[in-house]
Amino acid sequence: MIEIENVKKSFGSLTVLDGVSLSVNTGEVVSIIGGSGSGKSTLLMCINGLEAIQGGRILVDGVEVHAAGTDLNKLRQKIGIVFQQWNAFPHLTVLENVTLAPRKVLKMSRAEADAIAVRQLEHVGLGDKLKAFPGKLSGGQQQRMAIARALAMSPKYMLFDEVTSALDPQLVGEVLDTMRLLAKEGMTMIVVTHEMGFAREVSDRVAFFKSGKIHEIGSPQQIFESPQTPETRAFLNSVL
Amino acid sequence: MFQTAFSLNDLWFMAQGAGWTLLITAIAMVGGTVLGLVFGVTRAVLPGWTTLPLGFFLDIFRSVPLLIQLILANSFIPILGFRASPFAVSCIVLALYTSSYCSEIVRGGVQAVPQTTRRAARSLGMTWWQDMTEIVYPMALRVMLPSWIGLTLGVMKDTALVGWIGVIELLKSSQILITRMQNEPLFILIIAGVIYFLISFPISRLGARLESRFREND
């Protein structure tokens, strides 16, 4: 379970997260929607300790992420994250991209890591691209590779940071399909997204972010069909 | 009809000089690259102000003409009570000189690796060191290689200056022959030039091949 308690985060004088609280249960899919610069992506970075926080705390399975003694490298093994820019390792083949962390971090043998990587890459529909270099793949394929790369670490949680925003429209579908599949398999997911249709269909809960706060949170039906606040309504009107 | 006093023995003499040129280049490049990696990574990862003294030290080696560095080192090392042959002095000075350029190449290469890619590596649970060795170095290498090959060629030609402190490398051996034969300086310099070219050409070709191999994957 991920527990976010009154988290505050600022870059200099700019407050990005202004007291965010959110609990995500195992098996739950929570989508975070909201305008650009509302702090959605920053929250994900804070959850796996890529960003420091200035107040509150975040617990992942009871371990406080930003506590002094926390082994972040160990904690990150159970939190997969996929970024807007897929961040492929360009000097490694698709297969090597996926096997690198299992081999180096989990100390798997090459054969073990290969077996897992092949399974994950087939899972995301890249079974025929094992030997290709990322530069030869489309954006959508690279993004699916990034998902497989995170999944190869057998994470308990998956964080998705606007993973379709940088993709050509015709490539968005294939990535969303992969995420749908994951949700169906019961993966715990926090999804920052601008894909309202996807958020509505896949999420257990949807949170609307505004000015560094969760402005409104509820079931997809509630948020999309009967938003409680004018701000949520205004945002949805602007994107739907 | 073209006539020359230049003999096979003289060619052999120049070849030996070329051997020294190659040896000094190799030592300078190995030493300079190792030091350059250490200095360059240090400057790339530590906050700017902490590495100011190092930056200043390296600036000296880049700013003062190599010839002056060689002569000063060759004079001061004995004054300080150390014994070093001109060959050793040449290797030390050239290695430091090389490291000052190499550190900039390394720094540029490391900083060219996108922060987002490094974040992705760390987000997978990789340590800082694993990120450096598995992601940053291999990616930076592709950026650094062309400049590093250029540096190698430059250093190889710069070794011509060590003749001033008494190492008989290729150019110095040519000068000795010119002094002896008096009337054939151009012919001998052409031979020296050809030998320099024969050393450089394979290095630059190798660099070009490695580059195109890297590019295939991008």
Task: Explain what you see.
The complex is a heterodimer of chains A (240) and B (218). In chain A, 38% of the residues lie in helices and 25% in strands. Chain A has 240 residues and is of the alpha/beta class. The mean pLDDT of chain A is 91. In chain B, helix 1 packs across helix 4, helix 1 packs across helix 8 (185-216) and helix 6 (128-158) runs antiparallel to helix 8. In chain B, 35% of the residues are buried. The model of chain B has no long low-confidence stretch (mean pLDDT 91). At the A-B interface, helix 2, strand 6, helix 3 and helix 5 of A face helix 5 and helix 6 of B.
Largest sheet of chain B: none
The coarse overall form of chain A would be globular
Named at the architecture level, the CATH assignment of chain B is Orthogonal Bundle
How large is the radius of gyration of chain B?
21 Å
CATH level 3 topology of chain B: MetI-like fold
Spans of chain B of at least 5 consecutive residues whose pLDDT stays below 50 are: none
- The side-by-side strand order for the widest beta sheet of chain A comes to 6-7-8-3-9-10
Helix content of chain A: 25-40%
The helix-strand sequence of chain B is: HHHHHHHH
Number of domains of chain B: 1
Beta-strand segment tally of chain A: 10
Tell me the span between the first and last alpha carbons of chain A: 31 Å
SS field, number of helical segments of chain B? 8
As residue ranges, the low-confidence spans of chain A are: none
Q: Total strand count of chain B, please?
A: 0
Please tell me how large the radius of gyration of chain A is. 18 Å
Mean pLDDT of chain A, to the nearest integer, reads: 91
Please indicate the percent range of residues of chain B in DSSP E strands (runs of 2 or more).
Answer: under 5%
